[in-house]
Amino acid sequence: MAMDYRGDIFRPPSEAHSILLQVTTGCSHNRCTFCDMYSQSPFTIKPEATVMADIAFAALHCRRQSRLFLCDGDALIMPQQRILTTLDRIAEQLPWVERVSIYANARSILRKSEAQLVELREHGLALAYLGLESGDDQTLAAVNKGADARAMIQAGQRLRRAGIKLSVTVLLGLAGRERSLEHARATGAVLTAMDPEYVGALSLMLTPGTPLHDDHRKGSFDPPGPLGLLRELGEMIEHTELSSGYFHANHASNYLPIKARLPEDKEATLELIRKAIKGEVSLKHEASRLF
Ligand code: SF4
Predict the structure, then answer these.
(1) Cα separation of 203 and 194, whole Å?
(2) 82 FRET partner, CA 20 to 30 A, in 17, 123, 182, 285?
(3) Tally of domains within the chain
(4) Cα(169) to centroid of ligand 1, in Å?
(5) Burial label, 219 (beta-carbon count in 10 A; 0-12, 13-18, 19+)
(6) Tens of pLDDT along 258-283?
(7) pTM over 0.85
(8) Domain that holds residue 64
(9) Are 213 and 206 in contact, with CB atoms under 8 Å apart?
(10) Residue 287 covered by a domain
């Protein structure tokens, strides 16, 4: 006997050692032009009995894992009562779990009132991962993200006011070569307005079968090269003011690993990027970049 997993399971890098509790399958949006994560997996809310059986399994077999991640795509879209029941059962049967986190998107956050988000936090939801990708409205519309910068800011701020920690993912290269710096500046501005605890910057890797990959093949989308991505990263960090947060670009897809605490590491990080652009710091070889 094992936990019930349907389709491919994705989780943020920082949840590598977490109990992965699949409460939904797929992504309720599933229309971003760069993403094929859930293309084979339709969105469903899994039966409550299946989820409860998984928690009972974890109670017996996952006693050394102190974190739990609710997957898939945007599990926050579930009805409030279902999330509360799940959180309560986790607290009851897995009392050693110190942190429960979830994937969320702007729409699923904004469907909840601030009071509902507070209620989720009080029942144990500690952290949400939000895919911003870009703060530039033109880019968000082009990739069919399903939310504009204003909605993203509202969603991020609502979560923060409710006391749920926020981890935001942004995607370097998503605006292509021509709009790269606009994307960087606008994304920095949205991150500043949200003021999350964590920012994770990934570099775009075109996935065959996605509309964006097709655009690239047809010549209508031209992603920046390694140096362009570095300039974009520098511009984004330059325009990001966090009161106290981490800005990481250390995902396997990135050419130059960055782990910065903002605001204190900002200048040193920008200097490192400037040196990398001048060729004084070596970049990761293309073949060793991973999704
Ligand atoms: S919302 Fe996230 S998981 Fe869903 S299609 Fe967009 S990038 Fe993929």
Answers:
(1) 21
(2) 17
(3) 1
(4) 11
(5) exposed
(6) 999 999 999 999 999 999 999 888 77
(7) yes
(8) 13-277
(9) yes
(10) no
